[in-house]
Specification:
Layout (H helix, E strand, L loop, with lengths): L4 E6 L3 H11 L5 E7 L2 H8 L6 E5 L7 H11 L4 E6 L3 H12 L4 E4 L4 H4 L2 H16 L14 H9 L9 E7 L3 H8 L11 E5 L5 H12 L3 E4 L4 E2 L4 E4 L5 E7 L2 E7 L11 H7 L7 E6 L8 H8 L4 E6 L9 H6 L6 E3 L1 H12 L3
Parallel strand pairs: 1-2, 1-3, 3-4, 4-5, 6-7, 6-13, 7-10, 8-10, 13-14, 14-15
Antiparallel strand pairs: 9-12, 11-12
Length: about 350
């Protein structure tokens, strides 16, 4: 018999609590057992009860969501936290802060009552509930023992100059990806001998904030990709939320363009579009990296790419994934060259493409 999953909702809006309750309890095996209007009230509930998943608003009186997450971290609580995020620029920044503090994932708060009643919003809640409570997960995508930046960078500096072959690195990530990228990208040197293109499943606005945060903390240049932008070695380009990113070009020289097809694999941007567009790109080798995330985005695109181009495929290992869905899917094809811990993916990218 399947165990009923217990859910706690923390939001200062009684209406939003009601909306979330109604959506969650339509799903089999989920029960909203408690609600709280702020972080302090929620901590009192948590003194007496445990939950499988917590939905957390970030903007609340008395104790906001960030302060609540910090308290949970101090107490060593292990509930999966799903943040209900606003769409403002401030909301995007504190959402990334919440993820860094251990939140499992986030969904955008609907703009109005009508938007909250759409199948899209209820579908997002269903998907994140399933990922948080049933997927193959680990409590943290951040292993405690990490190689230092100096170790990675010193090894990169001992590499011979790249062999003149043109390569590109294409990364796909989803749930757990923002934190994983904040560990991977700062380890890449500014003189990496290839461009890096990333498809991270995030809504409009959040990808720009993520790119800005990564750029501040990284030696390599990071930005949200612009339509028609030429790819340069030693630069990282993040696909814009809400659009699909495609490569156009030949002989290993090319540009990034956006397209507006419907969501695929339930996401937009979808990594499959990027991988498929790289077929016939003229790169001597394409390094495909599949990281933490639910679903199977990237598998179909990489499989097709591998039948036409020379590829080197790296999958993040299960132990360091928040959700072992996308990497598991590509590993199952038998095409993967390496299964690597998150802390060592940068090192393997550097070894493969070299430095200038």
């Amino acid at each position: 018999m399947t165990k009923i999953k217990k859910i706690l909702i923390i939001d200062d809006s009684a209406l939003m609590r009601r909306i979330l309750c109604d959506i969650i309890e339509k799903e089999q095996y989920y029960k909203v057992t408690d609600c709280a209007g702020d972080g302090l009230a929620a901590l009192e509930v948590l003194e007496k009860k445990n939950f499988d998943c917590i939905f957390l608003d970030l903007h609340m009186p008395k104790m906001d969501g960030i302060a609540f997450l910090k308290e949970l971290k101090k107490k060593g609580r292990r509930e999966k936290i799903v943040v209900i995020s606003s769409t403002s620029s401030k909301g995007e920044k504190i959402t990334l802060e919440a993820l860094a503090l251990g939140a499992f994932d986030f969904i955008q708060k609907p703009q109005n009552i009508l938007a909250s009643k759409t199948g899209e919003f209820s579908g997002q809640i269903k998907n994140v509930l399933e990922a948080a409570t049933y997927a193959d997960t680990v409590s943290s995508g951040v292993p405690e023992k990490k190689p230092s930046n100096s170790f990675i960078k010193s090894e990169a500096l001992t590499l011979e100059k790249h062999d003149g072959r043109k390569r590109i690195v294409a990364i796909a990530s989803s749930t757990g990806g923002p934190n994983a990228l904040q560990k991977l990208i700062p380890l890449l040197p500014h003189n990496l001998a290839a461009p890096v293109v990333i498809v991270q499943h995030m809504p409009v606005g959040f990808t720009k904030t993520l790119a800005e945060r990564l750029n501040v903390n990284s030696e390599i240049s990071v930005k949200e990709a612009e339509d028609g932008e030429k790819l340069l070695r030693g630069h990282v380009y993040i696909a814009k939320g809400g659009q699909h990113l495609n490569f156009q070009g030949s002989h290993g020289d090319g540009y990034l363009y956006y397209s507006d097809e419907p969501p695929r694999e339930g996401v937009k941007p979808c990594a499959n579009y990027l991988y498929e567009s790289l077929a016939g790109s003229g790169y001597d080798e394409i390094v495909c990296v599949v990281m933490t995330g639910m679903g199977c985005d990237g598998t179909e695109g990489i499989a097709g790419l591998a039948s036409k181009n020379k590829v080197h495929i790296i999958a993040q290992n299960q132990e360091s994934c928040v959700v072992y869905g996308m990497p598991k899917s590509i590993v199952a094809t038998g095409l993967v060259n390496q299964i690597v811990d998150l802390d060592h993916i940068a090192q393997e990218i550097i070894k493969k493409v070299g430095v200038r």
